[in-house]
Amino acid sequence: MAAATSSTSLSLLPSSSRQRASAHAAPNCLNVAGLRSRAPFARRLGFAGVAVDPLVAHVAARISNVASAGKGPRGVVSMAKKSVGDLSASDLKGKKVFVRADLNVPLDDNQNITDDTRVRAAIPTIKHLINNGAKVILSSHLGRPKGVTPKFSLKPLVPRLSELLGITVQKADDCIGEEVEKMVASLPEGGVLLLENVRFYKEEEKNDPEFAKKLASLADLYVNDAFGTAHRAHASTEGVTKYLKPSVAGFLLQKELDYLVGAIANPKRPFAAIVGGSKVSSKIGVIESLLEKCDILLLGGGMIFTFYKAKGLSVGSSLVEEDKLDLATSLLAKAKAKGVSLLLPSDVVIADKFAPDANSKVVPSSAIPDGWMGLDIGPDSVKTFSDALGTTKTVIWNGPMGVFEFDKFAVGTEAIAKKLAELSKSGVTTIIGGGDSVAAVEKVGVADVMSHISTGGGASLELLEGKELPGVLALDEATPVAV
Ligand code: AMP
């Protein structure tokens, strides 16, 4: 049986960060005017009732309930989806729970897990379920198999899962069928059965209703904790919800929503967004969405050269998207119209070739010579950006400031990571919105101090763009409570 711990909080964040987030939470949550003005954004994400007073009261009540009941990191603002934390022993004891997690871990040639972050991230939800007497049927994908592919089996997950849960996790050789049904039937209360890679069936990604029905037939209720695949409507992320009630969010999914939706929909101000990365085309949606909410927008990375060119500056051989010049101009105009301080770097580190050993120098952004390309933001920009960030209470960061994979051009990105760490320690809510910015804060060794590090790539980006995630929409709405 599982160790008798009642903790359901995410172990990814140090408790100090969680407490900090919670400490910031209450005033935000009670800012009814703020919630109302941001309501359309929240509604698009399936936060249907966020504009109505009962739910605002409900959210506020849940924050204070959580604070007193120690139910986990509901810190910044609670989402209006039913959560696994809402299910207690009376709902769970003896029940078969289908848990969709994201156990898509990297494996080396000997099938050893080289990074167990995703396994650890799945543990709080599973522990909550088994500690309350549920029988957990655990499902995930791994890699991109084409049919049954032994190297993408979930078998290598069993030892680490067992160790972290303190029980012997059982493993099925399939994810549907008679053998699996027998194993489910003999699963004890508090037991965990890991199903085989759900993507061994092409029906999974096709969201085939018959396949979804077969998966769902194994269980009584459903928990989705796979944030990384919540932007895909697959059989195990969306299809099964049609057959299992309740269908609720796991702690990891809930926390991602709390920060990437809640904290951004109703931020403690001033609120700054830092957007970097290679191309403006891949971040249009994020920039447009954040322009609606932030007070300060800092731009870095390869995309800045499209903005400079649009402003009539020469950019040498820097990355430019010629077909996005008008877009850059319109984004600058939009920022101005909305009163958002949009800062472009004042200086850049340029290189004579795209290589780690390129010759480099710092020049003003307006003086990039022909034949040179900008690969990082310069020291003046780091100072200006840091000063601007120093005035904020909430910061979201998506995309590196330069080609941080090359040490020579990682300085700007690393300086921003360090600045955010410093701000985080002084109580600013710092959200690292997935992808390469996560790699950057990990490289600098400051991931642990951030308020939230998103575990999703595509899913984080879609949330930041204000899109609906099918895997979230499909979950049951939280029931408003009388206060
Ligand atoms: P994204 O996936 O859009 O966030 O882009 C991340 C990539 O942008 C990283 O691989 C960086 O190397 C790249 N990048 C950042 N700055 C630049 C730049 N100035 N020129 C070219 N690529 C860049």
Automatic annotation (TrEMBL):
Gene3D superfamilies: Phosphoglycerate kinase, N-terminal domain (3.40.50.1260). GO terms for cellular component: cytosol. CDD domains: Phosphoglycerate_kinase. Pathway: Carbohydrate biosynthesis; Calvin cycle. It catalyses: (2R)-3-phosphoglycerate + ATP = (2R)-3-phospho-glyceroyl phosphate + ADP. Belongs to the phosphoglycerate kinase family. HAMAP family: Phosphoglyc_kinase (MF_00145). Monomer. This is Phosphoglycerate kinase. It comes from Aristolochia fimbriata. The lineage of its organism: Eukaryota, Viridiplantae, Streptophyta, Embryophyta, Tracheophyta.
